[in-house]
Amino acid sequence: MPAAVFRSFSVTLPESAYPDTRVAARLRFDPALPYGVELAFPPHRPGGEEITWRFGRDLLAEGRLTPAGEGDVRVAPGPDGRILITLGALGPQAERALISTPDTAVAAFLAEAYTEVPPGTETAHLDLAPGLARLLA
Which Gene3D superfamilies does this entry report, sorted A to Z (predicted)? Predict the structure, then answer.
């Protein structure tokens, strides 16, 4: 079984009240869920919860080159070697957040993820047996 891929780095929130403040973030790819990636933000205070967004691995790859995505997650190339990820519907007020990530970190993460599960081989990594067993029980 291929190994999970993690990449930690700092992001900024250019449309926030503190656009230059760096925030810890992590990308994760689980080969058991080969079509998606997670973008997670660790708790910023003790007892807080990690905030995690899941979206398509190919969306992240496409968005490095050209604006991509519809709905709650959009990815686009940004200025100065950055990737801009827009996360929508945050909180009860349906706010959105613009996340600016370093392209070098995203590119390295995707290279590792595509090494673990090459494009076009995703279905071979899906374990459908447990779900089918539940459906047929």
Answer: Sporulation-specific cell division protein SsgB (2.30.31.20)
